Amino acid sequence: MPSTSPAETFPAHTPAASQIFTTVLTHGPLTRQEAARRTGLSPAAVTKAVRPLIEAGFLVEDAGAEVRPGLGRPANPVRVDGGRALFIGLKATGDEIIGVLTDLCCRIRVARRVPLTGRTPREVLPVAADLVRELLTEAEGFGVQVLGLGIAVAGDVDRAAGTVRFSPFLDWHDVPLAALAEEASGLPVTVDNDVRALTVAEQWFGDGVGLSDFAVVTVGAGIGCGLVVHGRVVSGAHGVAGEIGHVPVVPDGPPCHCGDRGCLEAVASDPAITARVREVTGVPVADAAEAVALARAGDAGARAVYARAGEAIGRGIATVANLLGPARVIISGEGLAAYDLFAGQVRDAFAAAAFGSAARCEVRTRPLPFEEWARGAAATAIQSFAGR
């Protein structure tokens, strides 16, 4: 991968500028008065923070949309110029790398998928490098600079260190991914757990905008959970906050790869469901798609497996609601392709297990293609660029 010229940095490295920029990015357009109200900053501090962002072209003032004139201070709304910069996001699975090129507002401009022929860093990194090169070439057509690269990987990821401590699907251990990617690309690189990255995208650009407390639960190859508490994505002291996939939900249930029994992931992940359908029905379904088709065809055993999975997911979501009291839980992931087979069980189990006012938590489904996971990686790069 050819090195790029040094990436432009955020024009005003102050907490106020970062706060104003992200507030306008996620809630804008906003007048300065509205931005002051949302951030708790003084009008003078807002004006000081906005000025260099406008001068650098990251914020623009909509002079033709004047509202509520103020005394001596412009009342025109300001908004982020999404076309001012581009970002790249990569999501690595065990089988492929999905890459996207987004603008500053995290809108996908280009998306690509590349298959993997192996899973070791030696095999994956050159494929990722080629994909970044391709997206950088695509970016040239937009005439603006790529200012960051985000990479999302399942497993235990130390974002601060840029290290993949352990990824079960890739079988990686202590891979300094950010340093390797920065050396190859010349771009600032952010590496994060894929569910946390998706949660950042939901917080800034999706169904979590405006919520100080919510969770994202993903169902599919594994079961993941991203947590936002008091407006911040929580990773915990050791980076593994939200591991509900390994919360036991079925006493004496099936063994889990973590060594325990009855974990949510051992009951409700796609591989667990597929294996259980084969066991119960005797039909040699090869993957989740075939298991879904069998259940939709009316096979009672297969439908019972999905019903049990739905109950387990509902109990897992209730655990999150009982512990943290989020306003909303967003269910996503490729496992939602089968949601019609267990939606009722999720709702019923959640209602039965949620304690008191925790039952008021809104449970919302949000089917997302895999490109959205890569978009989550781009969102973390945008977040890092803005100093958040």
Automatic annotation (TrEMBL):
UniProt cross-references to CDD domains, sorted A to Z: ASKHA_ATPase_ROK_CYANR (cd24073)
PROSITE patterns linked to this entry: ROK
UniProt xrefs under Pfam families: HTH_24, ROK
SUPFAM superfamilies named in the record: Actin-like ATPase domain, Winged helix' DNA-binding domain
PANTHER family per UniProt: BIFUNCTIONAL UDP-N-ACETYLGLUCOSAMINE 2-EPIMERASE_N-ACETYLMANNOSAMINE KINASE, ROK (REPRESSOR, ORF, KINASE) FAMILY
Family: Belongs to the ROK (NagC/XylR) family.
Protein's name in the database: ROK family protein
